[in-house]
Amino acid sequence: MYLCTSPSYPSVQAALDSHLLGLMCQPETNHPRPKWVWAADNGCFAAKWKEGRWLRWLDSGLPRGGCLFATVPDVLGDHERTLERWERYAPMVRALGYPLAFVAQDGASEDAVPWDGLDVLFIGGTTRWKLGPEVKALIVAAQTRGKRVHIGRVNSQGRFLAFAALGCDTADGTYLAFGPDTNLPNLLGWIRHHATQLTLEYS
After folding, report:
1. Residues 52, 26: Cα–Cα separation, whole Å
2. Which of 38, 110, 141, 199 is 20 to 30 A from 121 in CA distance terms?
3. How far is CA 50 from CA 38, 66, 125, 195, in A?
């Protein structure tokens, strides 16, 4: 499932209502409606990010039933600092009742991921690292442990289909923020193409 970031357009809302798409939410923006499928990003790359504001948002009565995961704060491109943030913030997010997403950043390896504590492996990192062999190995490691896999920053058909072919569960991106009247049919076409390929594979 593709988690979009632009729920203000009626056509996108209709796709969210019918579960053709999900919603990636940021603190105090893109609030999910009941019955929508959604995930909580942490927004920690924003210049004005505040721990207290982020935690209050998570605890503000968001509709938990459709929530796939909440993303524990991370540090772009830095696995070691992301682990430090995980140790601090994962218990707080767990205490609020959310499934936890650990963001894999540059330098992450199978033996250095907190598998026992996470529900979802979120593939972040720099573009070069994300498209490399280390990430493919992490995806397989997550799947063998029964963990779901989410891919961040997916804004092209090629990348969407490549990660879908690896068996990843969800992806997010800003693709619909630019020209949704044109890009929504394109995005739904990616999804149909993947579904058709699966049908052919297993028929």
Report:
1. 14
2. 199
3. 22, 25, 22, 40
Residue pointed to by tokens 């330098």: 107
Amino acid sitting at position 75: V
8 A C-beta contact, residue 121 and residue 140: no
Cα R_g (the chain), whole angstroms: 16
Instruction: Give the CATH fold of the 2-202 domain.
Output: TIM Barrel (3.20.20)
Rounded to whole angstroms, what are the CA distances from 82 to 101, 134, 162, 180?
A: 12, 17, 26, 33
| Cα within 13 Å of Cα(129), Cβ side | 17
